[in-house]
Design goal:
By secondary structure, the chain is an alpha/beta fold. The chain has one domain: TIM Barrel (Alpha-Beta Barrel). It is built from eleven helices and twelve strands. The strands form two sheets. An eight-stranded parallel barrel has the order 1-4-5-8-9-10-11-12, surrounded by eight helices. Strand 10 (244-248), helix 8 (254-263) and strand 11 (268-272) form a beta-alpha-beta unit. Helix 3 (98-108) packs parallel to helix 4, helix 4 (140-157) packs across helix 5 (171-181) and helix 5 packs parallel to helix 7 (228-240). The longest helix has 18 residues, at 140-157. It starts with 14 loop residues before the first helix and ends with a helix.
């Protein structure tokens, strides 16, 4: 008998065999594509640190959503860049706010897309923090009512899912209670449950114009060194009424995605964030990597770790590549 008797390479011999035994199948149906809504008309301003990503007015957002729908991507995530900012993010609650108008325009266009909205204050406050600031600190409980009202305004405009990203304690419960009181019990909550205080958010700060004007977000976003705490955060959000839980960022936290997947029998999302996107774009521009191959490998890795849903700026490119793979 020839050695070795076990030959795993037999099943790698050609693409048909590799496809037949492939354990993780990456699909466009997993993707959610983030979009940045800005005031004005016919505005389409590329984010310098995120090639291919734009700040866009509502009319342009609708056109991009048509493309997203045609590519088979099931949903989008909306971030708003308001006309005015103030200490409490009051513009985030306005019926005619940029996100609210974008939701209504997408609905009017009758696009077959799930519309998820980011619920947070950082884009809307003049200090750039995710909550109300009192005595130099982000005040948890004073922020909850504003977040809940923001989520309600998105639901009234026609959002399918609201996604609180602020990391205030109790925000999911406050949002769920107010939605239910106003007959929006069928609106889902996607909780940024394990959101780490990460250096990978840098390009997003430019895209969303949300950099803190003082200090940082370490007092409310999670310490990157902690894993057990992530499970606690997820458990609390589920107890308060979250329908989907998210781990953010993705690449440096694949172990967290796996632990959440193994521990909880609910849909798990992962956010392939701006810094992760921009590093790939920069390396590809310099000819250091094969962009298509690396992007699909990264997204497959996130799915393999246990993510059912992947929020990614690569979504449109990946959808095209998967069609021709």
């Amino acid at each position: 008998m020839s050695f070795p008797t076990q030959r795993p390479r037999r099943l790698r011999r050609n693409e048909a065999l590799r496809t037949l035994v492939r354990e993780t199948h990456l699909s466009t149906s997993r993707f959610v594509y983030p979009l940045f809504v800005t005031p004005g008309q016919k505005v389409r301003q590329e984010v310098s640190s995120m090639p291919g990503i734009f700040q866009q007015s509502v009319d342009q957002i609708v056109e991009e959503c048509r493309e997203v729908e045609q590519l088979g991507i099931p949903g989008i995530l909306l971030f708003g860049l308001p006309e005015t900012k103030d200490p409490t993010g009051a513009s985030s609650l306005q019926k005619n706010g940029v996100v609210q108008r974008a939701i209504e325009a997408i609905r009017k266009a009758k696009l077959n897309l799930l519309v998820t909205t980011d619920v947070c204050l950082c884009e809307y406050t003049d200090h750039g923090h995710c909550g109300v600031v009192e005595n130099g600190e982000v005040a948890n409980d004073a922020t909850l009512e504003i977040l809940a009202e923001q989520a309600l305004s998105h639901a009234r405009a026609g959002a399918d899912i609201v996604a609180p990203s602020d990391m205030m304690d109790g925000r999911v419960g406050a949002i769920r209670e107010l939605l239910d009181e106003n007959n929006f019990e069928n609106i889902s909550i996607l909780a940024y449950a394990a959101k780490y205080c990460s250096g990978f958010y840098g390009p997003f700060r430019e895209a969303a114009q949300s950099a803190p004007q003082f200090g940082d977000r370490r007092s409310y976003q999670m310490d990157p060194a902690n894993a057990r705490e992530a499970l606690k955060e997820v458990e609390l959000d589920l107890e308060e009424g979250a329908d989907i839980v998210m781990v953010k960022p993705a690449l440096a936290y694949l172990d967290i995605i796996r632990r959440v997947r193994d521990e909880f029998d609910v849909p798990v999302a992962a956010y392939n964030v701006s810094g992760e996107y921009s590093m790939v774009k920069a390396a590809a521009t310099n000819g250091w990597i094969d962009e298509q191959r690396v992007v699909l490998e990264i997204l497959t890795g996130i799915a393999r770790a246990g993510a059912d849903i992947i929020l990614t700026y690569h979504a449109k490119d990946a959808a095209r590549w998967l069609k021709t793979a």
